[in-house]
Fold each of these.
Amino acid sequence: MLNVPSQSFPGSSSQQRVSSGGRSKVPLKQGRSLMDWIRLTKSGKDLTGLKGRLIEVTEEELKKHNKKDDCWICIRGFVYNVSPYMDYHPGGEEELMRGAGSDGTDLFDQVHRWVNYESMLKECLVGRMAVKPAFPKGMLPKSQVTDPLAKEGPSSPSYDWFQTDALVTIVIYTKQKDINLDSVIADHRDDSFRAETVIKDYSYLIHIALSHEIQEDFSVRVVENVGKIEIVLKKKENTSWKCLGHPLENHNSLIPKKDRGLYYRKCQLISKEDVTHDTKLFCLMLPPSTHLQVPTGQHVYFKLTITGTEIVKPYTPVSDSLFSEFKEPVLPNNKYIYFLIKIYPAGLFTPELDHLQIGDYVSVSNPEGSFKISQFQELEDLFLLAAGTGFTPMVKVLSYALTNIPSLRKVKLMFFNKTEDDIIWRSQLEKLAFKDKRFDLEFVLSAPTSEWNGKRGYISPALLSEFLKRSLDTSKVLICICGPMPFTEQGMKLLHDLNFSKDEIHSFTA
């Protein structure tokens, strides 16, 4: 009997916004939207060609199905007939055909491993790959003899625990010096306690069914100079625990972060404010039983069930304003997460998000992304190129750079929009430019009114060559770019034409 993959477990972790390059979308024909695909999957039509049967697929059988009208692809051991999906795929049939008749897991992970393919392609499931015969005892293939982590990854962390009458403390020894509170994501749900530590590009997981009940809230402390993490749990009853609990799935494991599945928790909508005519600031509150801080330049995923199908979208948290340090938070600041989100009335996801009432919940994933704070080391000039809501990753990047980088001479933001009404946080940006002389700001509009005296047009060699002037010829430079895919792709091409190196450019691409 084959196991159909769970609809609720999302694809593995994501770098939907990656450090360079990007995925081109193709225009979809009329009637080929995501909503149209969901309708087709619920129509009862046989999308596998197997009349509801599930089969075991050998490598030889998989290879035979490599044409557009007969295209099978394997993802994480499960085989899907993706031919019916060809016309609905935003990346076009060419991208899907790259995996035709083969294991497309690596290809899938490179482009969009955040996508909940189990839910999207559930009706296209052909079956699972046949298990290869095991090797005779003692005969391992060469690739399995050496532990790759021993060669490439960090040394494996360890953990211990101790208790007092009222508290239980879990101590994780990471053996790394660049660990901070952003590195730890911890969740307590029912009697299960899960603590994931991100160490470079690896993920270390503690996952335990606790032997006794604990209170909702707990605290996390990091001793940075020795890489020690202390998680302090409060006992519900002052009894002595004989053991911490029993291990759950993947407990005490260190694996590449990209191979760790996304983990979600339900966050409550606290407020929703208009920012522009079509953009809103959403404030979500983490559960008291969660410790999560999204690192600068990273994003999370929202998950909503829409007409029975789980849809996942990436969003980058922002500060509540560019001047948040002057506000008195009602609750501890790290329990709030803010998002600037543009509402597309004809879209599938954002109208559902906008219809949420204060007090409703949305599932939010662990942080993802390839941006590293180390890119700021000894930085002298920071150039930000943003279009529309591509401004969102720039909010924390801008704030962090101006606050924490002593070598910084200049930060410049070129912000592209259609009209003046579309400019997010215009007055705040202008106040910041007035207050901090290191910060320069330029707005560029593609459809301004006749009264507009500023720059006009689209991203171009002329605009960039004038904008990207170093404060000194030898200045260390970082250019961050984010916006709709055509904007980012054009911008990346122009930056390369202007002879900026890959190390000097970070693109947040969707």
Amino acid sequence: MISQFFVLSQRGDNIVFRDYRGEVQKGSAEIFFRKVKFWKDDGQEEEAPPVFNVDGVNYFHVKVVGLLFVATTRVNISPSLVLELLQRIARVIKDYLGVLNEDSLRKNFVLVYELLDEVIDFGYVRTTSTEMLKSYVFNEPIVVDAARLQSLGPASIFMPGTKRMPGTAVTKSVVATEPGGRRREEIFVDIIEKISITFSSSGYILTSEIDGTIQMKSYLTGNPEIRLAFNDDLGIGRGGRSVYDYRSSSGSGAVILDDCNFHQSVRLDSFDMDKTLSLIPPDGEFTVMNYRMTQEFKPPFRINPLIEEAGALKAEVIIKVRAEFSSSITANTILVAMPLPKYTTRASFELEPGALGQTTDFKEANKRLEWGLKKIVGGSEHTLRAKLTFSQESHGNITKESGPVSMTFTIPMYNASRLQVKYLQIAKKSGTYNPYRWVRYVTQANSYVARI
């Protein structure tokens, strides 16, 4: 049961606040923000965990497009349940407002409070279904211009083809109508994969895994049945024989998913035969399928770190990053980080000649090197050199006191698993449905680590 729900900006401003039970003291939002902003673990500043307790109050939070969605309670409740609820509340609000940011929340606070009162009643969850809420919520959203939206929203990048959707195609409300009272009949599909890879010091892959999600956002009236087709060589489970049998031991498909789960509306009647899913999509954004894959795949980046002593109180770090994907693809917002020995006092950096859009920093508080790259084109290689100064001589191996090197990134229109959506077919024929090439693929780093 939830005592309070509130949404804070990055500055700590209280944008939305609802107290359902009156059992948590006033000022909880300020207490929470101070705790998160100045979180320290073992005397070092770190990012606050998603769940923590202060003076008998449990705080749960998730960050969505820079906003903090927070719930409080005094009772012992499942953390995963509350965190999932916060994600779903954010998704419902986005479905209704179209754009989820501070401006849209402030302009639509009446609609947001109406949604919250229907989603949670006296601290108990009633429903998080966008479709069911339509029967109880009647306020119209105030449209907010999404041109400056910086978040990685669904379907902002589309496959090339004869038709292209504008970038704001899915940043509209599921309940708002087009000028003239018409609704645009559209549906969008995202395949988002988060990859985890650990490299050995010699560059070999020690562990690798893909956590994938297929998301849809539907603006189709009448909720027609659709069919979603995947690769012909797709298999699920070690045997790849049946979607219901995960215990088989030998695989034959080119793309083998270890396991997966589906939205409640998905029917698997013909999956084994032609690799298609049938479903009646609910209104708004929802997850069609989650999957996990440990089959070998080609990593998008290779990281080669090296650290060498350069004197009694000095050392040099060399980090090389090579993009292993096609030159037609570009990775964005790359950050390479490396923990340094605790007695490091200074770091000076040297970038390759002509480097553009790259930043370097030495975080003295937690002794960490950071290298940011705005973008990396496939097939290219980039190198960073850092000269370190120590306050004392190393009495051990500097390599053991440094690293590992971690990397975060986003690669639009690339998926490591090679899972593909061949086509989406709408069973109900209608002249108002306007098909586009709508599938977007995105790969992100979940845990990308190289040992030194």
Amino acid sequence: MIYQMSVAADSPVHSSSSDDFASILDAELDTISDASADIQEGAEEEEDNDVVEEGDYDLKFDRAKRRKVESYENVADLPSSSSQGSSPEKNKCLHPGVYAGMCMKCGIKMDDESGVAFGYIHKNLRLANDEVSRLREKDLKKLLHHKKLYLVLDLDHTLLNSTRLVDVTVEEGYLINQRDALPDTLKRDLFRLESMQMITKLRPFVHTFLKSASNMFEMYIYTMGERPYALEMAKLLDPGDVYFNSRIIAQGDCTQRHQKGLDIVLGQESAVLILDDTEAVWKKHKENLILMERYHFFSSSSKHFGFDSKSLSELRSDESESDGALATVLRVLLRIHSLFFDPGRDDNLMDRDVRQVLKRVREEVLMGCKVVFSRVFPTNFQAEQHHLWKMAMQLGATCSMELDSSVTHVVSLDAGTDKSRWAVHENKFLVHPRWIEASNYLWKKQPEENFPVSQSKNK
């Protein structure tokens, strides 16, 4: 059964009036903070005298969100506080949010749809921009106190790969017809979903990745897929419901068509990192993005992106557990987290920006390299606008149009160009453009000898 978000039935919150839904929100955030403290500092009694067990932090967060909604549902039909004879000016409502067409603070009917819809928390919930900002700041303080940041995770080609059953090729048929003979590691991460007529393969190392990342981040799933698919994938990745809870954002939650945005993530942009295989959907948040190498396990996935070679499944192979994309990016996340929370820094924790830390770590990859390109860009194309030029700069390299003794690398598609021959004569590195891309995905300068440049056949 697909996990369905619903209002918690056992909420301890029973307000007797509709005077301040926002205060309930604050109270529940305090409960979350207490829960996290129990996890990190040992078992302590909360206000309700419940002891939080190991791993319950995210569960508390999910319950808190649901309690907010339930509390409103219990009191929404009662008279608002502004009708109890108090001063109108003193009790003037700023309408922090809307639930089911009514202000969640004072209870009056609201006709406009201002603010942001948080449908993944509850389909009828909208929060005003000021309220979103207030909640983000409050939640950030609590999260930083427990040395956590936010991590937004894409699904397809980042954490897993799915294909329709009808698209499974003859060479991939063994995945279905010979399941009992499959290696245990493959059998464990391969799922046939009859209800959706799909088969899904989780990316190697994903379970270890999620467990380790959850110690450093509050995690969201954010996919352009539809909600039923997103919930089903979340069940495969997080069967114990300990990593994501209600933080699952799908296509219908997006506020802009064909774009993902942090406007519906309850986390300050300065504390959010994103893992996604597609840069174009994050136009407003590229500084938060860590671009992932796409995971193409199935043939249909490879063909969709224009690859003619056989897929991993057809080759009966897979990514490495220890050196694959998720293991690599986990090491990057550990370093970013360590630098962000470096106790030797003398600035205010709330003033720190994870985007600056990410930029610093990325620039270490090709630091000290000076790159000249040869016959890589189209004729009359402005070099500085090419994605490889930009990528090399982001990785800390210096890019130039001219050759001189300080140049360390010539990047070329043809070993017969003047610049390529110069590189060989001057004992400089002559590398294929894939050298830059590989260094980018692996977060480490790659051995130049692994990226040789061939002579053009046209010469």
Amino acid sequence: MAQPAEKGYYRFLVLFFNCMLTFGSYFCFDIPSVLQDQFQGNLTCPNATVINGTLACVVGLGMTPQQYNLLYAIYAWTNAVVVILAGFLIDKLGNRFGVFLFSFLCVLGSSLFALGSHFRGTPYLLPLMLTGRLLFGSGNGSLTIVQNRITAFWFKGKELALAFGLTLAFSRLGSVLNFFFTQRFEENFGMQWTLWGGALLCVLGFMSAIIVSTLDKVGMRQLGLDGAIREESRKVRIQDVKLLSLRYWLLVLTIMFFYNGIFPFIADASKFIQDKYTDYSQKEAAYVAGAVYDSSLVLSASVGILIDYVGLRGIFAVACALFTLPVFGLLAFTFVPPLVSTIWLGVTYSFAAASMWPSIPLVVPQATIGTAMGLATSIQMIGIGISNLVVGQILGTKTSDTKIPLWRWQRMMIFMLANTICCIVTSVLLNIIDHRQGGMLNKMTKNSGQTGGDSDREPLTQREEEESEDEGDEAPPSRSINS
């Protein structure tokens, strides 16, 4: 009689709680963006007047624009550094260690961040909130790695992109709900309760971590892999990074250049829309900019099913970059409604996320998936951070109230185009190298089963590859990945 872990429903039960790991942290991450006016609002409003029923002066935490942006900068740079070590630790110590540690850091970081808001007007506010963001950044990016690693074990072959698409959709659902509900919640209950609400959602993520780790452990035991996995963990060394192939590095560069053209644009899209299309209010511009994430939320699962059915991940990577080129051209040099461009960008982003990230487990040794994911995330964050700095220099303004000339926005879009062209180059080279090495990324997967997908992977370790060559016609090794 088949064990529960061998049945399809068990995998999707694991996937559901695995998706919930990052729902709360993605919601919590962008709360400062939604409440930017409250973060930078005045400490007091002694001579405030009411205009159209609204207080002209916003009572807030009194942060300067530099201090506010530091909340995001410390998250990004912490993430870029920590995820490398985190990936190796997950490979060495296992998924269950990682899921507890990093979900706890998200809870601790978001709680410190919320606690800092109680020290408004004191010297303790900024250090507490920055420390909270630092710990939160250490946990959130690393939690995504262990989430992807769990997904890569339980879903292979024809279900891999679907599973990755669903985890992305749940994460983006957190971002979208934050966008729609946080402002209203803050108006009714205040900033402090709003920040604590974000921390509570991270606690729900920690509870999901307990459940998914239990399911993972029970499933490993039922599949008879628990002992083998611990043995494989002991073999993982930092030197294993040398096993990462040229295909992997080209894939990482493709991801970095594509995201360099997405996230820096989204960060400034609302202001760009208000500056170029003068009939948009701040709220309307924010809704239009948010259409990128809305499209991704709606399409992620269906796009994952499509890619699982047809394969062709390398071809999709090239196509995503090619179809993204017109977006920045339309934004820079035409007055086509911006919603057309943001929805279009959301569609290409959905296809890119469903084709690029699930390709990493296919081109690296299985025992180094965590390290590979960590390196890819780090390089992606470094690229985005550098791109944000370049965009800041191009736009050349220090205050959000100044209207930026159109020619500066056009230069920014040209920079986005340059990143997209680099993405096309690296993705074409990726397809050439992949074709020479057997065409794994572009294999048609519609006829492959769950277990049949195991052969479409890199070996667990270099030693396993050598041993499998020596075994000849012996029985194939059992399915395994470090957990």
